[in-house]
């Protein structure tokens, strides 16, 4: 059972819902220690006081803010806990918004909110069902770990999930990363749409969505534990820069996607009707920005 990382209440208008917060995700990555390669001794980071030139214990360490080069102000955990903010003790819902209005870049770590005690059960279920029927997300503010944060509340199965969100000024402007305008034909765009259709799935189940890196790393560790040579990657020629016939590459990709799904029939993959034009013209109009809308809505069973 995951431990409680925070406890307080959801503030929903005048309704207060006592809650406990637990992590909604787990990290199964393989972790390494730093070791001295000569004798395999552990390499550790020790905490020293630069004024006394000695190692200090965790109990002697606190938080300090450097006001100037000659002045440091210390702030205790008790003082942080008593900051006069409404959000210090509650996840305060400020508004409800459509899912599609939320930029996925702003959505961060997820937490489960658990009703804390029998009294909390009814208002908890009330908020859950209201969110479910409205198909909207709640936007809240809360203060954890020394800072006030923005949060998104949504439904997953029968639980309310809180996602920490980034503030507006924490999202970088991508405009300078966009490529210069390019020439695209209608046929190329149509073929790309057809490839998207062929690669569309109902969910993220299947071997292609498994963590193959961790499996391969476990085999390396097991081989070395047994004193054997670790498995080696097969040698493949490095890709070389080359001019690609984009339309031909798309058509071949559609055919490959059809074959991987076991779709038979004609291998001529021009399934979408072409526009009737006197001559093929190039278009410089960028593709419509659908990323935000399509990916923003976190479903109930994400």
What does this structure look like?
The chain has 302 residues and is α+β, with helices and mostly antiparallel strands. Helix content is 23%, strand content 27%. The protein has 6 helices and 13 strands. It has helices at 77-81, 118-134, 186-198, 212-225, 246-260, 291-296, and strands spanning 4-12, 15-23, 48-49, 54-55, 63-68, 71-75, 90-98, 107-115, 136-144, 147-156, 159-165, 184-185, 282-283. Strands 1-2-8-11-10-9-7 form a 7-stranded mixed beta barrel. It has a two-stranded antiparallel sheet with strand order 3-4. α3 (186-198) packs parallel to α5. The longest helix has 17 residues, at 118-134. The chain is extended and about 65 Å long. The two termini are 21 Å apart. The model is unreliable at 265-302 (pLDDT under 50).
Main sheet: which strands, in order across?
1-2-8-11-10-9-7
Number of strands: 13
Instruction: Please state the CA-atom Rg, rounded to the nearest Å.
Output: 27 Å
Mean pLDDT: 79
Biggest sheet layout: 7 strands, mixed, barrel
Q: H/E order of the elements? A: EEEEEEHEEHEEEEHHHEH
Residue share in β-strands: 25-35%
> What fraction, in percent, of the residue positions are helical?
10-25%
Give the helix/strand class. alpha+beta
Instruction: Report how far the terminal alpha carbons are from each other.
Output: 21 Å
User: How many individual helices?
Assistant: 6
* pLDDT < 50 stretches: 265-302
- Apparent shape: extended
Topology (elements, then pairings):
Layout: E1 4-12, E2 15-23, E3 48-49, E4 54-55, E5 63-68, E6 71-75, H1 77-81, E7 90-98, E8 107-115, H2 118-134, E9 136-144, E10 147-156, E11 159-165, E12 184-185, H3 186-198, H4 212-225, H5 246-260, E13 282-283, H6 291-296
Parallel strand pairs: 1-7
Antiparallel strand pairs: 1-2, 2-8, 3-4, 5-6, 7-9, 8-11, 9-10, 10-11, 12-13
Helix pairs in contact: 3-5
């Amino acid at each position: 059972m995951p431990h409680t990382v925070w406890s307080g209440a959801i503030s929903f208008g005048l309704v207060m819902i006592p809650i406990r917060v637990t992590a909604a995700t787990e990290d199964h990555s393989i972790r390494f220690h730093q070791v001295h390669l000569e004798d395999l001794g552990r390499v550790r980071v020790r905490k020293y006081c630069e004024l006394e030139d000695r190692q200090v214990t965790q109990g002697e360490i606190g938080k300090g803010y450097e006001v100037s080069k000659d002045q440091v102000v210390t702030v205790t955990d008790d003082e942080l806990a008593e900051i006069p903010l409404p959000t210090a003790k509650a996840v305060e819902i400020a508004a409800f918004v459509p899912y599609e209005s939320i930029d996925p870049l702003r959505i961060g770590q997820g937490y489960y909110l658990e009703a804390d005690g029998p009294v909390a059960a009814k208002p908890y279920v009330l908020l859950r069902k209201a969110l479910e029927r409205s198909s909207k997300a709640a936007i809240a503010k809360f203060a954890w770990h020394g800072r006030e944060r923005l949060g998104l509340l949504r439904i997953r199965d029968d639980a309310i999930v809180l996602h920490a969100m980034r503030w507006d000024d924490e999202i970088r402007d991508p405009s300078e990363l966009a490529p210069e305008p390019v020439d695209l034909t209608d046929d190329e765009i149509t073929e790309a749409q057809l490839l998207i259709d062929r690669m569309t799935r109902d969910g993220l189940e299947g071997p292609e969505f498994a963590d193959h890196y961790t499996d391969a790393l476990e085999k390396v560790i097991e081989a070395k534990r047994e004193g054997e040579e670790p498995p080696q990657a097969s040698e493949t020629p490095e890709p070389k820069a080359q001019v690609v016939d984009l339309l031909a590459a798309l058509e071949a990709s559609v055919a490959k996607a059809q074959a991987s799904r076991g779709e038979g029939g004609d291998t001529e993959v021009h399934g979408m009707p072409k526009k009737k034009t006197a001559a093929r013209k190039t278009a410089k109009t960028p593709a419509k920005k659908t990323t935000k809308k399509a990916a923003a809505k976190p479903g109930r069973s994400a």
